Amino acid sequence: MSAENVNHPSHYTQGGIECIEAIRASMQPEGFQDYCKGNVLKYIWRWRDKGGAEDLEKAKVYLQWAIDSAEGKSNDDKPVMTLSEALLYTGQLLSNEYLSMPYDDEDKDTKKRKTAIVDAIAALEDLRGMLNENS
């Protein structure tokens, strides 16, 4: 079992930002606590059949994040993004995915994915605009 796989998996970090921080920034504390609770249940549910003790360690990490959030503690070892920054970053990731897709307008699945990405980016920009108006 690797502590790296449990605490800070490299495949969940892009541009120096860990995915969990973007998720945390995109939600109110109660939403983040519920997100953590769902992950605790998932890892406990499957631990015997899939990840073994490592899944229990992952459940423990999510439980600690939920406890910390419920107690109003922040994750001081990582920079916390604002919601606007999280939305911008998510939009950038989606743009990169769009640009990396093959140019094939005849393929229905590619066209659907491109349309979904463009729609998601537009929705993120709308949310950022509303946040900036209310600031």
Task: Report on this structure.
With 135 residues, the protein is mainly α. It folds into two domains: 3-70, no CATH class; 83-134. Helices cover 69% and strands 3% of the residues. It has a two-stranded antiparallel ribbon with strand order 1-2. A hairpin with a 2-residue loop joins β1 and β2 (17-18). α2 (19-25) crosses α5 (83-100), α3 runs antiparallel to α4 and α5 (83-100) runs antiparallel to α6 (108-134). The chain is globular, with a radius of gyration of 18 Å. The mean pLDDT is 78.
Short description:
By secondary structure, the protein is mainly α. It contains 6 helices and 2 strands.
Keywords summarizing the entry:
135 residues, mainly alpha, 2 domains, two-stranded antiparallel ribbon, 2 strands, 69% helix, 3% strand
Reconstruct the topology from this structure.
Layout lengths: L2 H5 L5 E2 L2 E2 H7 L3 H18 L6 H18 L12 H18 L7 H27 L1
Antiparallel strand pairs: 1-2
Helix pairs in contact: 2-5, 3-4, 5-6
For the termini, the CA-CA separation is: 45 Å
Q: Enumerate how many helices there are, as a single number.
A: 6
Describe the strand arrangement of the main beta sheet, using strand numbers. Answer: 1-2
Shape: globular
Rg (CA only): 18 Å
Q: Helicity range of the residues?
A: 55-70%
Element-level helix/strand string: HEEHHHHH
Percentage of residues in strands = under 5%
Low-confidence stretches: none
Structural class: mainly alpha
Averaged pLDDT: 78
Count structural domains.
2
Using DSSP, what is the number of strands?
Answer: 2
Give a short account of the largest sheet.
2 strands, antiparallel
